[in-house]
Design goal:
There is one protein chain. The protein has one domain. It contains three helices and three strands; from the N terminus they run αααβββ. Strands 1-2-3 form a three-stranded antiparallel sheet, covered by helices on one side. The C terminus is likely disordered.
Length: 79
C-alpha cells in the first residue's frame, strides 16, 4: 500500500513525504550505529493510512577517537 501511495498522490498531498522509505536502513547505511529502536503505529487507529508506521530511536556516530559526550545523535522518523 505504501509503494502505491508513493507512486500516486501521497507525496503531493503530504509535502513530499515518501512512505515507503526505510529510515532505519538509510541511517544504518550512512554509518550510524542504532542504539535504541522502537516501531510504532501513529495514530493507532483501526484505519491504516500510508503514514501510520513510525520508527523512534537513537543513532550515534561510531566512535572515531572523539569523546563520547561529543558524539552526534539522530532521532528516527517516518513519513
Amino acid at each position: 500500500m505504501q509503494r502505491l501511495a508513493d507512486a500516486t498522490v501521497w507525496p503531493l498531498l503530504a509535502g513530499g513525504c515518501h512512505t515507503a522509505t526505510d529510515p532505519v536502513g538509510l541511517i544504518d547505511r550512512a554509518g550510524f550505529v542504532i542504539t535504541e529502536l522502537r516501531r510504532l503505529r501513529f495514530p493507532d487507529t483501526l484505519i491504516t493510512q500510508p503514514s501510520t508506521p513510525h520508527v523512534l530511536g537513537v543513532a550515534r556516530r561510531p566512535d572515531r577517537g572523539t569523546p563520547p559526550d561529543l558524539g552526534r545523535s539522530a532521532a528516527l522518523g517516518e513519513g
